[in-house]
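Journal club prep, notes for RB
We'll compare a predicted complex against what the paper describes. Inputs for the benzoic acid case:
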Amino acid sequence: MTLQLGDTVPDFESDSTEGPIRFHDWIEGSWTVLFSHPKDFTPVCTTELGAVAKLKPEFDRRGVKVIGLSVDPVSEHKKWAGDIEETQGAALNFPLLADPDRKIADLYGMIHPNASDTMTVRSVYIIGPDKKLKLSLVYPASTGRNFDEILRAIDSLQLTANHSVATPADWTRGEDVIIVPSVSDEEARKKFPGGWKTIKPYLRVVPEPAE
Ligand code: BEZ
């Protein structure tokens, strides 16, 4: 069955470039990004892993753990890590899971047989501290992901979790946000004592709450 938003993500045990990992223990109450790669020693994946390694401080700042997955053994991942550092100017600084028997790929639905029987698609799972799936994305092997967009989505998810606000189209940090419809005006007066702007009764905007 497809993993859906709000589901508790499946647990698994697997080897990684940083040793064996039991996923639910590894999450340990943190926000987590799990992202899959079709295969080791492939060009787009090489650029993606370098991009995430460079952005690691941004994930850390948000309290988010990152973990990659590729359907090859750790011995191959370790050789590939040398290429990533050499070509992308950034060393792998987060674990890369090995999934040679496609156990995790099957659990998470990362193999889309009409795209490829053997390689995973580029899946992204943003998981909350409660181990529930908050957002997922699926890209084909030929399209590298935009990790700034993933950070932007994390900012939105964390604002919703902490402040009952949603974010409008193309929102970026520092711009006004939207009071979620489930918050009544009466509740909003307590949560947002500085007030808000009502554009329509269902469209109420406030400055981005401080962290
Ligand atoms: C890549 O990472 O470059 C890639 C992997 C599989 C198919 C196409 C591209």
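Talking point for the session: Residues 13 and 53 are 23 Å apart (CA to CA).
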